[in-house]
Amino acid sequence: MLKRIDEVPLGFYLLFAFTLGLAPFAPPHVLQKLGMLLDGSLHKPIDVFDLLLHSFPWLLLSLKLWAMSRQNIADRG
After folding, report:
1. Is the CB of residue 37 less than 8 Å from the CB of residue 31?
2. Contact (CB, 8 A) for 17 and 59
3. Alpha-carbon gap, residue 12 to 19, rounded angstroms
4. What would the pLDDT profile of 14-66 be if each residue is shown by its tens digit?
5. More confidently predicted of 4 and 77
6. Three-class SS string for the chain?
7. What does the alpha-carbon distance between residue 68 and residue 22 come to, in Å, rounded to a whole number?
8. Which residue, 48, 56, 51, is CA-closest to 5?
């Protein structure tokens, strides 16, 4: 799976995270859903789906950055 993530350029993940991950932009939807999660009011299935949908690009970006850092460490050592 990490091989597939390595094949996609970082710019794609950045664009994906900043568009779908933050849409709609005022206020960012993912922050609203995270607030609901922390507040304990995330009960409706559509809200859970929405949180997963808007969090997925951030998860992929995190995996890409983690894979890049792992590669960087392997290249040095």
Report:
1. no
2. no
3. 11
4. 999 999 888 887 888 788 889 999 999 999 999 899 889 989 999 999 999 99
5. 4
6. CHHHHHHCCHHHHHHHHHHCCCCCECCEHHHHHHHHHHHCCCCCHHHHHHHHHHHHHHHHHHHHHHHHHHHHHHHHC
7. 23
8. 56
Neighbour-count burial for 12-48, b at 16+ CB within 10 Å, e otherwise: ebeebbeeebbeeeeeebbeebeebeeeeeeeeeeee
CA dist 30 and 27 (Å) reads 9
Structure tokens at 61: 């970006």
Residue 28 bridge partners (DSSP): 25
Q: pTM for the complete prediction?
A: 0.82
Tokens of 62: 């995190």
